[in-house]
Amino acid sequence: MKIISENELLEAAICLRNGGLVAFPTETVYGLGANALNPIAVAGIFNAKKRPNFDPLIVHISDLSQIEALFAHPINEAVYKLAEQFWPGPLTIVHRKSALVPSIVTSDLDAVAVRMPSHPIAQKLIHQSGVPVAAPSANRFGQLSPTSYKHVAKQNMEIDYLIKGDELTKAVGIESTVVAIENRTCTVLRPGVITAEDIEKCIPDFEVLTPIKNIKLVSPGLLQSHYSPLKPLYYLNDNTVVSEFAGVILHKKEHGKKYSDKTIFTSETGNLLEVAANLFSSLHLMEEDDAVKAIYIAKTTEKGIGRAIMDRLNKATFQYQK
Ligand code: TXA
Ligand code: MG
In the structure, which protein residues have their CB atom closer than 6 angstroms to any atom of ligand 1? Predict the structure, then answer.
């Protein structure tokens, strides 16, 4: 694996186009990219992540016109409305696919997920590669999502290039909102910082569904256990007794009664955008600290962006919930 900086981007873009694997920063989390039109390259992603192949991938674009070739026609008008308001940015749109999209990208589903990231390095890389880029988060299956190139490097995956570009990566910090468009409905498959309410305002003529709990579709964001650090992670309750070997993650300083010398605050004020931006990086810090044997994390509200944060935390703590 070659770790490069932004000024060597073209080298990575050419590799990507020719079937290589490139990890790149986005405004949500790092992605592990392959040429979406090359099924063998895409198979390499599943192999590097040890990801089961029933989990479909998001295709990343740098120009709106690329949806014309990826989505089946007629393209639902909601796609254009959502794209106009939220792209480039942390929204992924699932829509019936064209014949151009290989079935390995969508795990044989007849719809494909597409997103236009806003991170300048992601945009430049996709543009220079000249192809749509299939990319899941650049972590081994089930583990913490990466928000720094260092988080990707420690996963020891077999990839060709890893692009540095941490400065903007934490702008959002958690994965994009995923919505599926069909006829007059828009289903929120994965919550993110763009909320169901934001979507409703953008396409008021569509029915917006949020059936997170009973969705039958199998996909990583929807599995019960996911995004887990390599040590036990528990919720912090009022009566939790924290051992001296535990790390604590809180989301607001003023209520931060001191539980442990190893306490990290995702936000000083409880600002949920800040909490999201720092969520995975705080978990990575705790994971990397050998003195920390277990992690306790506070809950947030389930409203608005809190819904997306609690979705990640419920999955990350799932295997340790009683
Ligand atoms: O912010 C993000 O979305 C990041 C960056 C790299 O763009 N990517 C990411 O990818 O989180 P991944 O593979 O970790 O999550 C992809 C999500 C899954 O929840 C999957 O179920 C959903 O997108 N998805 C992808 N294709 C789909 C499809 N055809 N139908 C339904 N859901 C799909
Ligand atoms: Mg992921």
Answer: 26, 28-29, 31, 56-58, 90, 92, 94, 106, 109, 111-113, 115, 117, 135-137, 175-176, 178, 180, 189-190, 217, 219-222
